[in-house]
Write a structure and sequence with these properties.
3 helices; 0% strand
């Protein structure tokens, strides 16, 4: 593999690493756009494929982030319900003991 190809792979890996957090997606898109501009004259067919894969990567990361947030919210609700249930049982036990 040539040094140029290796450099492109490293740049792509940097952009992909930035997609892990939704907050860094604009920076990731900027890095990919710069890479895309550099690759535009080399192999247009491969660039179309790479662009499609990039779009899918961004979409998958956003979907993953969304479902993680939903999971965290569901966990918080379940934890709150469990705490309320425990408190209710403790209150009931105190009431029974007072009788």
């Amino acid at each position: 593999m040539s040094d140029v190809a290796q450099a492109w792979i490293e740049r792509l890996n940097e952009a992909i690493a930035l997609t892990k957090e939704v907050q860094t997606h604009p920076e990731a898109k900027a890095k990919f756009a710069a890479l895309e501009a550099d690759l535009s004259g080399e192999n247009p067919e491969m660039l179309v494929l790479l662009k499609r894969l990039w779009d899918e990567c961004i979409s998958a990361q956003r979907g993953s982030a969304f479902w993680k947030e939903m999971s965290d919210a569901e966990k918080a609700l379940a934890d709150g319900a469990m705490a309320a249930s425990i408190q209710s049982k403790q209150n009931y036990m105190r009431l029974v003991q007072e009788m």
